[in-house]
Every structure is written in C-alpha cells, then in structure tokens.
Write a structure and sequence with these properties.
235 residues; alpha/beta; Rossmann fold; six-stranded mixed β-sheet; four-stranded antiparallel β-sheet; 10 strands; 34% helix; globular
Length: 235
C-alpha cells in the first residue's frame, strides 16, 4: 500500500532522514519506534508532503506521491493525526469533526460522525464544548476522530500516547486496534515502544534518521537490544 524508497529529507543543511526504506501492506498496523529526535515525526510528515524529500520516492497504492502537495493527500485517502494534536481550540468538538469531513462529499457525514462518537463516547458528551477546554486525552481522541471523518484508507498517527495517563493510553491503543480491524491501514509513530510493538503487526526501529532494525511486532518486543534501549531494561 505504501512504499518509502531511499528517502533523504533535509532541514536546511541538516539531513534528518538518511536513505529510509519502509513498506506497509494494506490492512497492517506498522509502527516506527525510536528515541526522541531520531527522525520518526519527520518521516511521517515527509509521507504527508511537508517537508518534501530531497531524494527518494514515496509510492501509495501504486502512485508516486513524492511531489503531491500536502493538502491533496487527504483526497487520496491518507489522513494524519499529528504530534501535539493540533485541534482547532476555539471550535467545538462538533465543528472540529466537521472540518475533518470537508474533503468528502458529505453524503455519509451523519453515519461517519455516529461512528466517531461510538468509538469515542466522551466526544459525544463534549460535542458542544470548545476543543481547547478538553483534557489531553479528549483532545487526542478528537484529533483521531477528526482524521477519521475524511474516511481514510491509510491513517498516520504521530505519538498518540504523548503526555497521557496510562489508563487513557490503553484506551487509545484499543481504539487504534478497532479502527484497523474495520479496514483502515495504520502507520504509527510512537515513543511508547511497549504498547506500539504489542499492537503492531510489524515494526521498524529508527536511530538518527536510519532504519536499523525491522521485524514482527512481538519479535521486536522480545528482542533484548530493543528491551534494553526502549523498554527501560525490559520492565
């Protein structure tokens, strides 16, 4: 479904991604783990078209999308829930979800918003509340819900557990699994290696802009190097 081939991405003269190769099959959850500053978010943003890679190609469903503008990605069936949520803080929950549905023709809006409210009952309770007044967990739910309103085939999630309480983290990851089971392919960038690898079909490890390891999620979870580096010595 998605192929990233030899991608080099720069910020000015600084090379953030150094020849990244990665692929995601339809129906998978694939996670990318790594330390802070490894280049994980840069890769997700590069897939979405901002920044553009200086070298390499990004292929989505057989189409080269390397030079497709970011604002056209949603119409291709790719949606992103960015790091830091970036909801519209002055808009209500309902208005944020309306914004997510703008790229669609609106014919299934009522059905789509009912599904988002089913996945995230708290959002229905808060539907008339401004986004900026929600808790961190509720804002993350809203960011994912807004992305789902565009009816994506590929969902890019950037650090969905960041700053959330453990109970909320488990809820978010359970919902990601359910979204995937309903047919949405997921590319998950996450610092919480334990939850990410437990959830993912496959995983990649990134160090300083380079993919250093790949394998099945459970396989990486049991790898002593991964446990030592990313799972606090295995605990």
């Amino acid at each position: 479904m998605l192929k990233i081939e030899g991608v080099h991405t720069f910020y000015g003269q600084i090379e953030a991604l150094k020849g990244v190769d990665l692929h995601i099959k339809k129906g998978e959850i694939v996670t990318l783990i790594g330390a802070n500053g490894a280049g994980k978010s840069t890769l997700l943003m590069t897939v979405f078209g901002n920044p553009k890679p200086r070298q390499g190609r990004i292929i989505y469903e057989g189409q080269d999308i390397t030079d497709v503008p970011a604002h056209e990605m949603v119409r291709l069936g790719i949606a992103q829930s960015p790091e830091g949520r970036r909801i519209f803080s002055r808009m209500t929950v309902y208005e944020n979800l309306q914004m997510g549905a703008l790229p669609t023709d609106g014919s299934t809006f009522d059905e789509d918003i009912r599904e988002v409210f089913r996945l995230f009952p708290r959002l229905e309770e808060r539907r008339n509340q401004r986004g900026g007044t929600l808790s961190g967990g509720e804002q993350q739910m809203l960011a994912i819900g807004r992305a789902l309103m565009s009816k994506p085939r590929l969902l890019l999630l950037d650090e969905p557990s960041l700053g959330l309480a453990p109970l909320v983290v488990r809820q978010i990851f359970d919902i990601i699994r359910e979204i995937n089971e309903k047919g949405v392919t997921v590319f998950l960038v996450e610092q919480n290696a334990f939850h990410a690898l437990k959830l993912a079909h496959r995983g990649y490890v990134m160090v300083n802009g380079v993919i250093t390891m790949t394998g099945a999620g459970r396989e990486l979870l049991d790898n002593p190097e991964i446990r030592a580096a990313y799972l606090e010595g295995g605990h």
